[in-house]
Amino acid sequence: MPIVMTATIPGATPELYDSLNQEMGFPDRVPDGLISHHAASIGDSMIIFDVWESKDQFEDFAAGTLAPAMEKVTGGAGAGVKPTFAELHNEFHR
Q: 89, 2 in Cβ contact below 8 A?
């Protein structure tokens, strides 16, 4: 069953978010297991909402791709971000 991953990244700006995506090669290289990705700026933070095929696939991506890119782009800022997970209950699109 797909899972939802949400995270708030305090102090992140849209420019930092864009730099991080560029470092990871997005959107040209979408990681295995990612179904959809959404991001928004709210105040002085970025909020992320993803749907993944499984929590394990997100964790593999986070360890192998996201963490090294975050380290390179931010120098370690954001390392304490703790995502939350839930089983996807429903989705629909227009």
A: no
